[in-house]
């Protein structure tokens, strides 16, 4: 099997994933998964598509992650891994779609509007 690549985004985080056959090692920005995401919850989020299909020990994953915070990065990585797994085996798509791993979360930060302190916040109203 050759290297399969995929892209995942969430908020302002971008994850580029390169999946090849191996022993289940996940390397993010040249660091191990447990080192990059010390939180077990975020590690679980990243591994969700692999665990759903039962292929966690079958592929080596190399990741370039940039932008966003740790939660957005982990969810971007989950989407990228799911997309790569579908490229490898298209029959897996319905199972991953049912869990919601194939859907790009469209929510992002709303832009600041002119004449306001934030996107929706208004300056305090003064009656007198």
UniProtKB/TrEMBL annotation:
Skewed-composition ranges (Basic and acidic residues): 102-112
- For region Disordered, the annotated ranges are 102-128
Q: Which InterPro entries match?
A: Ribosomal_Su5_D2-typ_SF, Ribosomal_uS9, Ribosomal_uS9_bac/plastid, Ribosomal_uS9_CS, Ribsml_uS5_D2-typ_fold_subgr
A biological-process GO annotation:
translation
Tell whether Repeat is among the UniProt keywords: no
Q: Which superkingdom does the taxonomy of this entry point to?
A: Bacteria
**GO cellular-component terms in the record?**
cytosolic small ribosomal subunit
Compositional bias (Basic residues): 113-128
Q: Which UniProt keywords apply?
A: Ribonucleoprotein, Ribosomal protein
Name a GO molecular-function annotation.
RNA binding
Q: Which family does it belong to?
A: Belongs to the universal ribosomal protein uS9 family.
> Know the name of this protein?
Small ribosomal subunit protein uS9
Lineage of the species this protein comes from: Bacteria, Pseudomonadati, Bacteroidota, Bacteroidia, Bacteroidales
**What gene codes for this chain?**
rpsI
